[in-house]
Write a structure and sequence with these properties.
The structure is a homodimer of 439-residue chains. The first copy, chain A, has 439 residues and is α/β, with parallel strands linked by helices. Chain A is built from 18 helices and 11 strands. Chain A folds into 2 domains: 118 residues, 2-Layer Sandwich (Nonspecific Lipid-transfer Protein, Chain A), CATH 3.30.1050; 309 residues, Vaccinia Virus protein VP39 (Rossmann fold, 3-Layer(aba) Sandwich). In chain A, the strands form 2 sheets. In chain A, strands 7-6-5-8-9-11-10 form a 7-stranded mixed beta sheet, sandwiched between helices. A 4-stranded mixed beta sheet of chain A has the order 2-1-3-4.
Chain lengths: 439, 439
C-alpha cells in the first residue's frame, strides 16, 4: 500500500462513539458553512443535528467529534483524509457535489478574516530538488503500472489531458487525437530528432516515431514507467527510433548528458512537478538542446491566477506539485529568451478526460480495493472527482504553449496545419492508425 | 506640419562645414561601432574617414561633427532625428540595413558597461492619463485621414497587423482576412452586441455589423478618425448597427457612460497606448461591460521580454507607446480574473504588412512631401522600415489573445471554427456575403 494513504488510516482513528454535539459545536458548524460561502449543501453532525438548507441536493455527514475539529483546523487537508477514511460521507454524486461546492468556496474565501485565510492556506511549493523529485515521482507514478492500466487508455497510456476534437470521442480516440495535435503543433518531419522531458509511459515518443518518422530521446525519472515504455517500444518495433533515458530534465544536454541538438523539444504534463524556482533550469536545458530554428511545446495544468495546489492533493496524491498561472508560465519563456508562438487552453477537455478516467476507475473499484484497500479507493476517487470539478468550474486550466528560440523565423506561417483534417484521420489512416497502435 | 517632426528641423541645424575629424573622433567612431555589436556596416565621417569592414553591404554617413556627438550621447534618439533631417544617410535599402543592424545592436548591448547602458537607455512609459492619452492619440492619428489613405488598405483603413492567411495575399485581402479571423475568434452570432475599444477608422466595427450581423459600440478618442468612421458607416448602410463614441476606454460602462452588457469585447491595436499602469483600469472596464458568458479579444504589439520602446519612435512618432512582454500581458488577464483561452503570435504577418505599407508610402512620397516636407517623409520612412526590421528580427511580436470571464463554460470547444474555410472565402463570401448583407 502506498505510504501516504496508509498513514490516513493510522493517523485518524475515529473515536468509538461520540456524545451528542454541544450547542457551541453546532454554532461552529454553522460558521463553517458560512465560511464555505453558504453553499446549498447540508452539513450534518454525528447526532443528526445539521446546518444548511433542508432541501439541499447534497448532505455531508461528519461522523464524529474529532472529525469536526480537524475540519475546523484545516478544512482542505482534513476533508480529504476524513473522506478517504470514511469519517466524512457525501450523499449523491461526488463530482457533481464538488462542482457545486467549488464556486461557493471561492466566494467563502472572500469572507474569511485574514487570520483565518492564513490558517487555512495551502502551503506553496517552489520547486523540488533532483532528490525530492525522484521521491515525489516515485510516490505517484510507481504505484504500479497495473493500477494505471485499469483506467488509462489502452493505446498509449496517457496520464495527461486528452483532446476531444469531436465531443463524442472515446478516451482512446481523444488520447490519439491529443498525440496527433501535439505532433502537428511541433511541425514534425520525417528524419527529425525530438527530445521529450517527462515522457510518462512513453506513448507520445512511440507515436512520434511511428507516425512522424522522427527519432526521440525521452527522459523520465520513474523506473516503473521507463521499464514499461521500453518493453512497449520493442513490441511496437520502434526501439531503434526511441531511446528512453532514466534521468532528470536538468541533465538534458548538460556535462553529464551531452547530446546533439534536436529539431523539437516537447514536455507533456511534467511542468506541474518542476516548480517555478526550477523554471530557469528547465529553460537552460531547452536552450542547450534545441536547434536555433527548432520548435518546442509545453503542455501543463495551469490556473487563472497563481495559488497553491489543494493541500490534501499535494500531500497525499501529488507531492511537490505546483500549477502555474499564465504570468508564471510566461516567465519561463521570457527568462530563457523564447518567443511564444501559440497558447491553447484545453480546460474542458481535461474535465472530460477526467470523467472518462473516473468512470473506468470506478468500474474497477473492486480490483483496486483488492490490490490496495478501501481508503486508497476513496482517496483516489476523491482526487479524480475533485479534478473533474476543478477543470469544470475553472479552478484549473490546461495550457499548451508552442515556442521557438527568439531569433528563429522558421516558425509556422499560421495554424491551418493543425486543422486541415481530423487529428484522428490524419493522412486518411485513421483506422489503420488505431489498429496499429492497439496491436 | 506635425509639431514634433517640425522640431527635428529647427533643433538640429547642421554646421555649415566641418573641419576634418580629429584622431580622437575617429577612435570614438570605432568605439561606437564596437558598442553597436561590430555590425558588418561601414560608419563614415564627413571627411571620408571610416570604421568597419571595407566590403560592408551598407555605409552610414555622418555629415557633420555635431551629428557625431549627438549620436554618441543618445544613439537611438539621435539616429532618428539625424536621419530624418538628412544629416545621416544610409546606402542601400533602409529596411534591409536595419534588419542587418538590429541583431548586432542586441549583441552590442551585452558589451556595454552599466553606465553606458543607463545613459543610452530609452525611457520607460508606465501609462498615460486620460488627458495625455488624448494628446498622444491626436499627435499620431490626427495627422490627417488623407495621409493614411495614401498607404493603408482601401477597404477598411486598418492601421494594424494584417493576416496573410495565404502568403501571396495583397494588403487588401490580408486586412479583410484579419477582420474575419478576429470575428471567428470572437464566435460572433447575428443579433449579438459588441464593444470595441480603440476602433481606429472603424473598419472592424463596420465589418462585424455587415458580415456578422451584430450591433457595435466602438470607442475612440481621435476626432479625425471618428468623423471618418461615421461617414463610412453611413455610406455602407450600417449606421444603425454601429455607434462610434468619442470617449476613453476607461469610461466604458462607468458612471459617466453606463451601458448594457455585451456578448463580445474587442480591442485591436489599442493596448500599445494604454501602458501597464492602466491595465487594471482596462480590465475593470471589460469586467463592467462583458457578459459572464462573453468572449474577449485583445490584439497588440508585444515583445519577448519587456523593454522600453525605441526612444525616437516614442518621442517623434508614437508618444506614450508601451509594448508589453508576455508576462505583463498575462498580468492584465490575471488581475481581472479572466481565463486566457488562446494566444497567437502573428509577428511575421506584421513584417509583411509593414512592407506593404512602406511600398505604398514610398510610391506616394512626392505627395507626402508636398503635404508635409522632406523631414516628415524621411522620419516616416525610417519608422516604417524600422518596424519591418523589428518584426522581421523578432525584436517585436504581435499577440492576439482570446479570453473569457473565469467562470464561463460557454467557450469554444476547439479552434476548428477558425480554420474550416479560408477567412477570405467565408461562406463562399467575397461576393456572396456582400449580396447577403445587401439584401
Amino acid at each position: 500500500m502506498p505510504r501516504d494513504t496508509a498513514s490516513i488510516v493510522t493517523r485518524h482513528q475515529p473515536r468509538a462513539t461520540s456524545r451528542p454535539a454541544w450547542p457551541p459545536e453546532r454554532r461552529l458548524l454553522a460558521w463553517l458553512h458560512r465560511m464555505a460561502g453558504s453553499p446549498s449543501i447540508r452539513l450534518q453532525l454525528w447526532d443528526q443535528s445539521s446546518t444548511g438548507p433542508d432541501q439541499a441536493a447534497y448532505t455531508v455527514t461528519i461522523a464524529d467529534r474529532g472529525a469536526l475539529y480537524q475540519l475546523l483546523r484545516s478544512p482542505n487537508m482534513a476533508f480529504g483524509d476524513l473522506y478517504a477514511s470514511g469519517r466524512i460521507t457525501v450523499s449523491g454524486a461526488l463530482d457533481e457535489f464538488l462542482i457545486h461546492l467549488y464556486p461557493s468556496l471561492a466566494k467563502g474565501a472572500t469572507l474569511q478574516p485574514p487570520w483565518l485565510a492564513r490558517l487555512w492556506r495551502d502551503p506553496a511549493r517552489e520547486g523540488a530538488s533532483e532528490q525530492d523529485a525522484r521521491l515525489n515521482i516515485h510516490h505517484h507514478y510507481d504505484l504500479g503500472n497495473s493500477f494505471y492500466r485499469l483506467w488509462l487508455d489502452e493505446a498509449a497510456m496517457q496520464y495527461t489531458c486528452a483532446y476531444y476534437e469531436q465531443p463524442e470521442y472515446s478516451l482512446e480516440q481523444a488520447q490519439l487525437a491529443k498525440l496527433e495535435h501535439v505532433c502537428r503543433k511541433l511541425c514534425l518531419k520525417p528524419g527529425q530528432t525530438v527530445v521529450e522531458a517527462g515522457c510518462g509511459w512513453g506513448g507520445l515518443a512511440r507515436y512520434m516515431a511511428r507516425y512522424c518518422g522522427v527519432r526521440v530521446k525521452a527522459f523520465n525519472i520513474s523506473p516503473e514507467q521507463i521499464r514499461w515504455a521500453r518493453e512497449r517500444a520493442q513490441q511496437e518495433g520502434v526501439a531503434d527510433q526511441v531511446e528512453y533515458i532514466e534521468d532528470d530534465y536538468r541533465n538534458i544536454g548538460s556535462g553529464v548528458r551531452p547530446m546533439t541538438r534536436c529539431d523539437a523539444f516537447v514536455s507533456v504534463g511534467m511542468l506541474e512537478h518542476v516548480g517555478p524556482a526550477n523554471y530557469p533550469s528547465l529553460g537552460q536545458a531547452i536552450n542547450r538542446v534545441l536547434k536555433p530554428e527548432g520548435i518546442g511545446l509545453i503542455h501543463t495544468i495551469g490556473r487563472n491566477r497563481p495559488a497553491p495546489v489543494n493541500g490534501w492533493i499535494e500531500k497525499r496524491i501529488f507531492p511537490g506539485c505546483h500549477v502555474p498561472g499564465p504570468v508564471e508560465l510566461m516567465r519561463l519563456f521570457e527568462q530563457s529568451d523564447f518567443s511564444v508562438l501559440d497558447m491553447e487552453n484545453l480546460r474542458l477537455h481535461y474535465a472530460r478526460t477526467l470523467r472518462h478516467w473516473r468512470e473506468r476507475f470506478l468500474a474497477h473499484r473492486e480490483q483496486v480495493r483488492a490490490d490496495y484497500d478501501d481508503t486508497f479507493v476513496r482517496a483516489w476517487d476523491l482526487y479524480l472527482a475533485g479534478s473533474v470539478a476543478g477543470f469544470t468550474t475553472g479552478t484549473m486550466q490546461l495550457f499548451q504553449v508552442v515556442f521557438a528560440p527568439a531569433a528563429s523565423n522558421r516558425i509556422p506561417h499560421n495554424r491551418h496545419h493543425m486543422y486541415r483534417q481530423s487529428a484522428l484521420a490524419a493522412g486518411g489512416k485513421g483506422s489503420e492508425k488505431e489498429t496499429a497502435v492497439a496491436s
